[in-house]
Amino acid sequence: MRAPAYHDAKEIHDAIKGVGTNEKCLIEVLASRNNKQMHEMVTAYKDAYGSDLEEDVIVDTSGHFKKMLIVLLQGSRDESGVVDASLVEQDALDLFAAGEEQWGTDEAKFIMILGNRSVTHLRMVFDEYQKITELSIEDSIKNELSGDFERLMLAVVQCVRSVPMFFARCLYKSMKGLGTADNTLIRIMISRSEIDMLDIRECFRLRYEKSLYNMIKDDTSGDYKRTLLNLCGGDDDLAGEFFPEAAQIAYKMWELSAMTKVQLRPTVRPAANFDPAADAQALRKAMKGFGTDEDAIIDIVAQRSNAQRQEIRQTFKSLLGRDLMKDLKSELSKNLERLIIGLMLTPAEFDAKMMKKAMEGAGTDEHALIEILVTRSNDEIQAMNAAYQAAYKKTLEEAIQSDTSGLFCRILVSLVQGAREEGPADLERADADAQELAAACNAESDDMKVKFMSILCTRSFPHLRKVFQEFVRFSNKDIEQIIKKEMSGDVKNTFYAIALRTNPPIYEIDLFTIRKEFKETHDVSLHEFIQVETMIGDTSGDYRKTLLILCGGED
């Protein structure tokens, strides 16, 4: 029942009054409002509370976070729509020079450009930046900035790219997991219901494969739920047509995915001054006599690269005439044993063991089979095949054929060949592949699945990114939604995993980036999540300690 400007003013006032500050609210509101909305909110704040909003924000915040908030509060972003091509390139170069190119970060340059340039201009700057650096502007912000300032700048970038997608993310975070962030849910549903709720709904469905309507329905109750569902405006069929805004976003997302170069940032690196003989002796000492020194084992194994661990294995046998793996198995137990033994295997041996474990005994762990075969490169799959044959005297393909059936079996057999095409996208062929997939969506179910297999299991991932982008253009639908809607069971899960693998950074081989994605998606750090989840059943804390070392730090 409040006018929009007074509602925004109240939300900001509530965020900064009393003890503590609700930085998430400040970020959401100030990053997403246009100049007119900002001016009206500042005026309403003065009228309602008798104080100056800018002064209150200055008192309650600090550092670069405060500076960017003040810039946004001015409501002075260029809204002319005129773009100077030479300034686009210069801004992209300036952002590069302010961050990735130097030691340390020139935060003022980020604030000046992201806080003042027009939305159209910034979109072109982000594209130019990606061409120059082979990194998205989001990745650079995650690399260079931290804390509330990082979160604010990411929110600004997300709003530049698409305000509806930004609010779709906020709504999802407000309802996922235990409990509901009702203040956020209420604020967004009120503020956007008369502006762009249809586009937010489509973006929500595009990103999370679930309608906003159904998520509200599952997460709230009573008259509160009924009111929110009225504001939402209706349910969306999972594989329905895109609205124009969402179709453009889907197409752009695949385009950005194609431009993104995965930056490998591991948390475990080769140890300096590595001495395999000293490590071998230290491990033997840790397991010799009465009791086991788990801390010594963890400190060595979890802080050496895999190549260094293999040297330790060999040196342990050469110096001591003992099998390190057997000694570790006899001294450790439960999850700690599984983790340490897994670390001591080569990657190919570990993958082979995980494949064996997924198929042994009663039942099959289809999710493990899918995860491994979809995420490994051709070379990794071929090395895994060799390791499996050496360890179990049987080919991995034979094991798959005896343990799975039907089209799912055929898909896994195709993937286990390790013969996926490699190299960049063939644009003409990508158009043809996209048209074939779009046409297959109207065919019989079995014919559709076979056509999807023939393309998704054989084409290179850069090529598939272009195929999936053009699929949006030909069908006005997203490939992930089609898979979720039209397929089922293990076939659906495999094709969906391939689609995710095609779209970095969902699947990456670098734990530092995974940590960043985990924090952004779940609003809790991977480090904190591991600490909580491993408390039960790990009374000694050794298993938890090892996982936290591999995690590499708190975000």
TrEMBL record:
<keyword id="KW-0041">Annexin</keyword>
<comment type="function">
    <text>May associate with CD21. May regulate the release of Ca(2+) from intracellular stores.</text>
</comment>
<dbReference type="InterPro" id="IPR001464">
    <property type="entry name" value="Annexin"/>
</dbReference>
<dbReference type="GO" id="GO:0042470">
    <property type="term" value="C:melanosome"/>
</dbReference>
<dbReference type="InterPro" id="IPR037104">
    <property type="entry name" value="Annexin_sf"/>
</dbReference>
<dbReference type="GO" id="GO:0051283">
    <property type="term" value="P:negative regulation of sequestering of calcium ion"/>
</dbReference>
<dbReference type="InterPro" id="IPR002393">
    <property type="entry name" value="ANX6"/>
</dbReference>
<keyword id="KW-0963">Cytoplasm</keyword>
<dbReference type="GO" id="GO:0012506">
    <property type="term" value="C:vesicle membrane"/>
</dbReference>
<dbReference type="GO" id="GO:0005739">
    <property type="term" value="C:mitochondrion"/>
</dbReference>
<keyword id="KW-0106">Calcium</keyword>
<dbReference type="GO" id="GO:0005634">
    <property type="term" value="C:nucleus"/>
</dbReference>
<keyword id="KW-0111">Calcium/phospholipid-binding</keyword>
<dbReference type="InterPro" id="IPR018252">
    <property type="entry name" value="Annexin_repeat_CS"/>
</dbReference>
<dbReference type="GO" id="GO:0051560">
    <property type="term" value="P:mitochondrial calcium ion homeostasis"/>
</dbReference>
<dbReference type="GO" id="GO:0005544">
    <property type="term" value="F:calcium-dependent phospholipid binding"/>
</dbReference>
<dbReference type="GO" id="GO:0097190">
    <property type="term" value="P:apoptotic signaling pathway"/>
</dbReference>
<keyword id="KW-0677">Repeat</keyword>
<dbReference type="GO" id="GO:0006816">
    <property type="term" value="P:calcium ion transport"/>
</dbReference>
<protein>
    <recommendedName>
        <fullName>Annexin</fullName>
    </recommendedName>
</protein>
<dbReference type="GO" id="GO:0005509">
    <property type="term" value="F:calcium ion binding"/>
</dbReference>
<dbReference type="InterPro" id="IPR018502">
    <property type="entry name" value="Annexin_repeat"/>
</dbReference>
<dbReference type="GO" id="GO:0001786">
    <property type="term" value="F:phosphatidylserine binding"/>
</dbReference>
<comment type="similarity">
    <text>Belongs to the annexin family.</text>
</comment>
<dbReference type="Pfam" id="PF00191">
    <property type="entry name" value="Annexin"/>
</dbReference>
<dbReference type="GO" id="GO:0005886">
    <property type="term" value="C:plasma membrane"/>
</dbReference>
